[in-house]
Amino acid sequence: MNDTEVLLEIRNLEKDYGDTRVLKNITFAVKKGEVIVLVGPSGCGKSTLLRCINGLEPIRSGEIRLDGRTITDGKTEWTEIRQKIGMVFQSYDLFPNMTVLQNVILGPTKVQGRSRNEASAEAENMLDRVGLLDKASAYPRQLSGGQKQRAAIVRALMMNPDIMLFDEVTAALDPEMVREVLDVMLELAENGMTMVIVTHEMAFARAISDRIIFIDAGEIVETDSPDVFFTRPKSQRAKKFLNLFSYE
């Protein structure tokens, strides 16, 4: 892997909650345009890792670099970095008193200083791409869970990030709504968006990922292509985990 290809690099990252070590010596790199899916049992540290990458959790030690720049040195202006690292959470966190359009243009107009007309035009184009243009004037309470999550994805994309982090974005959805959100993410992957995804949707993980990183008890157990990981996992821990799922 050439350094010029690497967009995100995590080196020897460790994270504690009190006396408990929740992330242990996490090291991996993400190339531009690559889709990495983090899988593992609940509570193994996957979501915490994403929150560390986005500066929402302090780390104990190690280093995170974005496009060659260290962002864990205590000097980072996170408002600037979070424009480059978009993140979508399990909860939608849309402002209930704003329409969908107002929600998705708030960041570009307030943080980036873009004109309302320019941001609105881009937002309408993106809402159209995810099948939400007819909901631009609707309020979050008028949307289904899947529609809210698609709006949250558009809101993050409106900042034109270099990389997107997705933290169990379908976990709170009814099964029939999961597909519409996953389809949006698949389209992003096809269009070359760099992504790190935490999910328990194993069939989706296999379909979208360039690499699978299996985490258990706060440490990376194995990393491989989806075809290899899902058919020939190397560790007993991964085999036991995969036996819980039907992902064909």
Structural commentary:
The chain has helices spanning 46-53, 78-84, 100-110, 116-129, 145-157, 175-190, 202-208, 226-231, 236-242; strands spanning 6-17, 20-31, 35-39, 61-66, 69-70, 85-88, 163-167, 194-198, 211-216, 219-224. The chain is α/β, with parallel strands linked by helices. It has a 6-stranded mixed beta sheet with strand order 6-7-8-3-9-10, sandwiched between helices. Helix 3 packs across helix 4 (116-129), helix 3 runs parallel beside helix 5 (145-157) and helix 5 (145-157) runs parallel beside helix 6 (175-190). The longest helix has 16 residues, at 175-190.
- Number of strand elements: 10
Q: If you average the pLDDT, what whole number results?
A: 94
Number of helices: 9
**Structure classification:** alpha/beta
Quaternary arrangement of the chains shown? Answer: single chain
Terminal-residue CA separation: 31 Å
What is the C-alpha radius of gyration, as a whole number of Å?
18 Å
Helical content band: 25-40%
Strand content range: 25-35%
Order of helices and strands: EEEHEEHEHHHEHEHEEHH
Overall geometric form: globular
* Model regions low in confidence, pLDDT < 50 over at least 5 residues: none
Largest sheet: 6 strands, mixed
User: How do the strands of the widest beta sheet line up side by side?
Assistant: 6-7-8-3-9-10
Can you give keywords for this protein?
248 residues, globular, single chain, four-stranded antiparallel β-sheet, six-stranded mixed β-sheet, 9 helices, alpha/beta
Provide a compact summary of the structure.
The protein has 248 residues and is an alpha/beta fold.
